[in-house]
Amino acid sequence: MVSVPRRLFTVVSAISLLLCMGWLLLWMMSIHRSDQFDTYDGSYHYHCLISSAGQLLIIYHDDSALQTMRTPSHPSTPWQHSSFPYAQHFLMGTGNWLNQHGFAFEWHEPVPVFAGNGFRSFSAPVGRETLLQFPDWVAALFFAVLPAGWLVAKRRRLKRRRIAENQCPTCGYDLRASKNRCPECGTPTASIPP
Ligand SMILES: [Zn+2]
């Protein structure tokens, strides 16, 4: 009977593996083209994701200062996808090692707000913009940790079970007639507790 935590670990690891593979796919697709997903939420916020050149850039734009100025928000729009046949590095900041390797976290204030017609109005620079950028490999690596842990745990369980059943922990060969060394793969067995 498989325990509930172990089953949960398996399910979460499987989801994590799918996310890891999805991110690797995103990374490959971003090498030669750029994809942008963005939306206005109708309450003074603009959200944008840009995948390009092996990096993901997340932009969060806040125009809520307009609310205190009694100016209506840009109307809401559903998530829109735009695709461009070129890849572009979004290297923000300069000089430091993290920026040069595709990492960035920036906060800009004030910046121009989105006006009612969808274009940025330069007359009222009261917006705030937060930018977060990281390379795709970081996300892929992050989502690979759990599946790797799952694999290690599975191998450890198998090894424990083989030792308990008097089998070689490396290849599973029956060791009841052997001493010191597995005749199949050569693994020393003298150190294995009976
Ligand atoms: Zn063996």
Averaged pLDDT, please? 88
User: SSE string, helix = H, strand = E?
Assistant: HEEEHEHEEEEH
- In terms of quaternary structure, the protein is single chain
- What's the tally of helices? 4
Q: Give the % helix.
A: 25-40%
Shape: elongated
Task: Characterize the largest beta sheet: strand count, sense, and whether it forms a barrel.
Answer: 6 strands, antiparallel
Backbone structural class: alpha+beta
- Spatial extent as radius of gyration: 27 Å
How many β-strands, per DSSP?
8
> Spans of 5+ residues with little confidence (pLDDT < 50)?
none
Widest beta sheet: strand line-up: 4-1-2-3-8-5
Strand content: 25-35%
Bound molecules: zinc ion
First CA to last CA: what distance?
Answer: 25 Å
In short:
Helix content is 32%, strand content 25%. With 194 residues, it is α+β, with helices and mostly antiparallel strands. The protein is elongated and about 85 Å long.
Key terms for this structure?
single chain, 194 residues, alpha+beta, 6-stranded antiparallel sheet, two-stranded antiparallel ribbon, 32% helix, 25% strand, elongated, binds zinc ion
Detail the topology: elements first, then pairings.
Blueprint: H1 4-29, E1 34-40, E2 45-52, E3 55-62, H2 65-68, E4 80-84, H3 97-100, E5 104-111, E6 113-114, E7 120-121, E8 127-135, H4 136-164
Antiparallel strand pairs: 1-2, 1-4, 2-3, 3-8, 5-8, 6-7
